[in-house]
Amino acid sequence: MSRKRNRESNDRMGNKKRERSSSGSYKSAVLHNNATDGDATEALWAKRAGRESTLTVALPGSIIQNAQSRELRTYLAGQVGRALTIFNVDEVVVFDDRSMSEIEAAGSAFGDPNVFLARILQYLECPQYLRKKLFPMHPDLKYAGLLNPIDAPHHMRANEDRPYREGIIVDAKSNNGKGSLVHVGTRQYLQIDKCLKPGVRVTIDMNKKRPVDPLKPTKDAGVYWGYKVRLAKSLKDVFAESPYEGGYDCAIGTSENGKDVGNMNLKRKFKHVVVVFGGLAGLEAAVEADESLKIPRDKTANIFDHYINVYPNQGSRTIRTEEAILIAMSVLRPQLDKM
């Protein structure tokens, strides 16, 4: 009798679920609130002006050492990747904020924290359909399944029809033996006229069927196209090895010892802005550890055009770097959007 009542109860529940799913209003509400479908996806591709300016975030890999396990380190790196994507960051620089003596004495079961963070960020930025080809098995990626997807515009579904796609040159010949075949996340490979080395990641213009500059979707259509990851051996190298001609024309440092961000005013437009965050001991400790800078920690502000405190009235003794990124980019966004 008990099993019979359970079956009857399950049948009634099943009928209610089917009735609910067949209701137009209920179904449309689910789709509307699904961040991976419908209006949310179209909003990423909304028509807007092209963008030439770039935004860079620099942070130390040492923030990973604040997590006690490889699982937590992976998840922390994922939080950083999500924050970078949300605020349309074009480049992320992971720098080493340790002194030479600290590096020589360092020993960790998890390896170099800078390389670990950079690898996770690269993995996150890569579209899912390319990861198996571009990222071989590695201990740093053991818990990649814990990572929340960044869902950037170039992370597309197979049935999406867009003017650009990310792809990888495959090691296979086309039917006519000309050009190259590219895996772009659709059911069939795309043939292009240009012969390229297999394994190379490319940005493809789907209308013209040819590889283009990865910056083209952003420059021409204003569509965010992910971030590049760069490793720097020190804070000085964040600036010295900038990939942009002439370097960064606006450097913003964040610290609890900085000036109230509410008093900051970007008086002119900048082409390449870098926002630098400190690690567990702050930016001053990174400056002190970098012997090549030859700048005392109390003069750290001299390195930057703006040295700001993003939340002067904090209720906690500390603001973690992954939290500082979200706070800083939120308060800086109105001014950065003017660029």
Note the main attributes of this structure:
alpha/beta; six-stranded parallel sheet; five-stranded antiparallel sheet; 339 residues; 11 helices; Alpha/beta knot; 2 domains; OB fold (Dihydrolipoamide Acetyltransferase, E2P); 33% helix
Describe the structure.
By secondary structure, this protein is of the alpha/beta class. It has two domains: 54-152 and 226-336, Alpha/beta knot (3-Layer(aba) Sandwich), CATH 3.40.1280; 164-214, Nucleic acid-binding proteins (OB fold (Dihydrolipoamide Acetyltransferase, E2P), Beta Barrel), CATH 2.40.50.140. The protein contains eleven helices and eleven strands. The strands form two sheets. Strands 8-2-1-10-9-11 form a six-stranded parallel sheet. A five-stranded antiparallel sheet has the order 5-4-3-6-7, with no helix packed on it. Strand 1 (54-60), helix 4 and strand 2 form a beta-alpha-beta unit. Helix 4 (70-86) crosses helix 6 (113-125). The N and C termini lie far apart (72 Å). The model is unreliable at 1-36 (pLDDT under 50).
Shape from CA axes? Answer: globular
Please name the CATH architecture of the largest domain. Answer: 3-Layer(aba) Sandwich
How many domains make up the 3D coordinates?
2
Instruction: Report the CATH topology name of the largest domain.
Output: Alpha/beta knot
Query: What structural category arises from helix and sheet content?
Result: alpha/beta
DSSP summary, beta strand count: 11
Write out the CATH superfamily name of the largest domain.
SPOUT methyltransferase, trefoil knot domain
| Spans of at least 5 consecutive residues with low confidence | 1-36
Indicate the proportion of strand residues.
Answer: 15-25%
- CATH class category of the largest domain: Alpha Beta
**SSE succession:** HHHEHEHHHEEEEEHEHEEHEH
Count of runs of 4 or more consecutive helical residues: 11
- What gyration radius follows from the Cα positions, in whole Å? 24 Å
Main-sheet strand order equals 8-2-1-10-9-11
Profile the largest sheet: 6 strands, parallel
- End-to-end distance, in Å? 72 Å
Helix content: 25-40%
